[in-house]
Specification:
Structural class: alpha+beta
Family: Belongs to the bacterial solute-binding protein 1 family.
Protein name: Carbohydrate ABC transporter substrate-binding protein, CUT1 family
Number of helices: 23
Distance between the termini: 32 Å
Largest sheet: 8 strands, mixed
CATH class of one domain: Alpha Beta
GO molecular function, one term: transmembrane transporter activity
Pfam family, one: SBP_bac_8
Keywords: Cell membrane, Lipoprotein, Membrane, Palmitate, Periplasm, Signal
Strand content: 5-15%
């Protein structure tokens, strides 16, 4: 949920909280006129040629596209409106897939591209007013807790076997979606289906890390090998080494770290996108910690019960404060001086300029821009000078916790949309995630949603030019990167609190502890209002009474859970690294049986 080349263009999460600003809205609409007739074989063959490669055989592609044409017959001539944020994947949908769908089905499909914050604003408008703004939505799975609790979202697992059975693709293969757990509510039901996904990983200069001279100097100073950092201690040592020991490469000043620090809406999801979990905030559990998640919100049953340590949460606990402290320390000591005044969209292109050694917080949605021929971080043969790898973890992290964030823009239907329009929109939303088109779309946007696409031979062939993207998505580590989960009862209301409060720490107005205390109190205040309103029913917040921090530290220890943790005596254990090539070789080289391509 970022807008890259913001354009997450790459990014749009930084507009999340500027949704009231008309100047922030970038709307791109592609209206497609379509013939009111069934798709003939020539039309189908034309689009099969476009949707190449595919994990389906040409025969099965034809079968699936014929099914869409037939299922759409009752809705021919209708004008249907769908919306998503603006990223490369959605641009392909809006410009190419919407046209294909219209030609195949006779439904006039308009797919709007607007900034992410505006998607959320319009979604809220429809949910609050009951007026149909859009017939279909692509919004982040970060809203799963919101969708589950407000009862205004169509439960897809029920819809596909009930009211929408006649318009549900028999070849959809729900179990092929790698992010299905992200879009499942506490009730075990499916509320959304992923349309695009990308992870937040560690990025580094492979050519520098394999340089024999640098490796020898690093080991002489730190006593261990220069490599992919396993923990934050090693990341910090590497940042220090390149910034203050190497200093220059080929006459250019280099830095051991890159980030951004301006008090701006984009600073919020810099942290809600799982920075605290990387440090070790929350409990064990995939996709999100239970009973305490990576936002520090405790949930009992399906009810959020508190964010502050005094209520059993962990938003202002030692692990969270440590995460903010390290963020600020690294930004000031090891990043370019101008980074402190940058927003996400301003900081995003910097690593591609060639003077950054590593970046802890890097989105794979940047991959397409980072492999452009001729840029400073690419070799002449088309291979990258850099690699991506799993992120290192902080000193509070325990095995079994999530380790990073994965964005999952997901197709969603609202109950306030008229039934016939909802069915027509559901056909389009399935079409853009169908096996007939998914692999080609993955090659365009590099935002994977299907196991079968990840393991396709076309990506085996392309992998050497993508810097570790394919290896990561094929690895067992992938499951530790997950979106915001069910514990967050109202994502739009709570997400905006982060940049405002952490921004005070970034600017120096507050200490990390003061900033996180204020954030925890603000989250509790929002949840208290939701509790009093009763609007979220039996799964809405029901806050615990306040206790001492020691009460909750002792309770976690007694219960065998983790959060909140007491402050560690030593927050910087010895650095640990792993050789990148050894790491890659340790991962499975064959796909799960069910994902084998036809």
């Amino acid at each position: 949920m970022r807008q890259f080349r913001r354009r997450k263009g790459p990014l749009t999460k930084n507009s999340f909280l500027t949704m009231s600003s008309a100047a922030a809205i970038i709307a791109v609409s592609f209206a497609v006129s379509a013939p009111v007739r069934a798709a003939d074989d020539a039309v189908i063959q034309k689009w099969i040629a476009e949707f190449t490669p595919s994990t389906l055989s040409k025969e099965d592609q034809k079968k699936e596209l014929e099914w869409f044409a037939k299922a759409a017959e009752p809705f021919k001539g209708m004008e249907i409106n769908v919306v998503s944020e603006t990223i490369t994947t959605h641009e392909y949908e809006s410009q190419t897939l919407a046209k294909a769908f219209s030609e195949l089905t006779g439904i006039k499909l308009k797919h709007d591209l607007i900034q992410e914050g505006d998607v959320v604003e319009k979604l809220q408008t429809q949910m609050q007013s009951g007026k149909n703004v859009y017939d279909g939505w692509i919004n982040d799975s970060d809203l799963i807790g919101t969708h589950f609790r407000y009862g205004q979202t169509v439960v897809l697992s029920d819809y596909m076997t009930g009211e929408g059975k006649d318009v549900t693709d028999p070849m959809l293969d729900v179990n092929d979606f790698i992010g299905k757990s992200f879009t499942t509510g506490p009730d075990g039901k499916l509320y959304q289906l992923p349309d695009q996904q990308f992870a937040n990983l560690y990025w580094f200069r492979y050519d520098w890390f394999t340089n024999a001279d640098y490796k020898a100097k690093f080991k002489a100073k730190y006593g261990y090998e220069l490599g992919v950092p396993v923990n934050w201690s090693a990341y910090e040592d590497i940042a220090e080494f390149f910034t203050n020991d190497i200093k220059e490469i080929n006459g250019v000043k280099v830095y051991g770290h890159m980030d951004y620090g301006k008090k701006d809406p984009s600073l919020g999801w810099r942290f809600t996108d799982a920075w605290l979990s990387m440090a070790g905030n929350g409990d064990k559990g995939i996709p999100n910690g239970l009973p305490v998640d990576e936002w520090g919100i405790r949930m009992e049953g399906c009810r959020p019960v508190g964010s502050s340590v005094e209520r059993g949460g962990d938003t202002n606990g030692p692990a969270a404060v440590y995460s903010i402290t390290k963020y600020l320390e690294w930004l000031k000591k090891y990043a370019p001086p101008q980074a402190q005044g940058m927003t996400f969209s301003e900081a995003g292109p910097v690593p591609a300029q060639g003077n950054i050694a590593q970046q802890m917080f890097w989105y794979t949605a940047f991959t397409a821009d980072m492999v452009k021929p001729g840029i400073a971080v690419m070799n002449a043969d088309g291979t990258p000078k850099w690699r991506m790898a799993p992120s290192p973890h902080g000193s509070y992290w325990k095995e079994g916790m999530k380790l990073g964030y994965q964005d999952a823009g997901s197709v969603t239907l609202l109950k306030s949309t008229p039934a016939d329009r909802r069915k027509a929109a559901w056909l389009y939303l399935q079409f853009i995630i169908s096996k007939s088109v998914s692999l080609k779309k993955s090659h365009v946007g590099l935002t994977f949603i299907r196991e079968s696409d990840i393991w396709d031979k076309s990506f085996t062939e392309r992998a050497p030019k993508l810097g570790g993207l394919i290896e990561f998505y094929r690895s067992p580590a992938r499951v530790q990167w997950t979106p915001t989960g069910n514990n967050v009862p109202d994502y739009p209301k709570l997400a905006q609190l982060w940049w405002q409060n952490i921004g005070d720490a970034s600017s120096g107005a507050k200490t990390p502890q003061q900033a996180m205390d204020a954030l925890a109190a603000a989250q509790d205040s929002v949840m208290e209002r939701l509790e009093k309103s009763g609007v979220q029913g039996a799964c809405g917040p029901k806050l615990h009474k306040k206790e001492t921090a020691e009460y909750w530290f002792a309770k976690a220890q007694k219960d065998g859970t983790i959060a909140p943790q007491r402050k560690l005596a030593n927050e910087k254990p010895k650095g640990e690294t792993v050789d990148y090539d050894t790491l890659i070789k340790s991962w499975p080289a064959t796909p799960p049986k069910r994902a084998e391509a036809k």
